[in-house]
Design brief:
Number of strands: 0
Oligomer: single chain
Structural class: mainly alpha
Shape: rod-shaped
């Protein structure tokens, strides 16, 4: 930034000793050091404020891109079937919706029993997986 060579620095020191004097030089250097420290603190504070604004702007831009991509994905992907089929889903393909309402399927008594073993739970899950067109669970 400031290109000060050795000869320029020597000239500044000589002029400072002549103008200020050797007795007041330590106090002048302390004062100059304090001013330089204050300027550095202010510049660091300003720089951190600018960096925070840039980070917030980048974050808002990333959130906007994420929302756009999420909307595009949601539009492109088909809707997943409902886990709880409605009465319309359970009707026969040829039946009209107003003429017949299918009754919900009843579960096996062994599933409702308090002492359910692993086999009966698997038997109860298999029809639901077949309705959703999922592969059977691994053994």
């Amino acid at each position: 930034m400031f290109d000060v060579g050795a000869s320029e620095l020597l000239m500044i020191v000589i002029v400072a000793v002549v103008v200020i004097g050797p007795k007041d030089m330590p106090m002048a250097l302390r004062t100059a050091g304090r001013w330089i420290g204050k300027m550095r603190k202010m510049s660091n504070h300003f720089r951190s404020g600018i960096d925070a604004m840039v980070r917030e702007a980048e974050l808002e831009e990333m959130e906007r891109k994420w929302r756009e991509q999420n909307e595009a994905i949601m539009k492109a992907s088909p809707q997943l079937p409902s886990l709880n089929p409605t009465a319309e889903d359970m009707q026969a393909p040829g039946a009209s919706p107003a003429s017949e309402v299918a009754e919900p399927a009843t579960e096996d008594a062994s599933v409702n029993d308090a002492s359910v073993n692993g086999a009966s739970v698997k038997q109860a899950e298999e029809p639901r997986q077949a309705e959703m067109h999922l592969p059977p669970p691994p053994p």
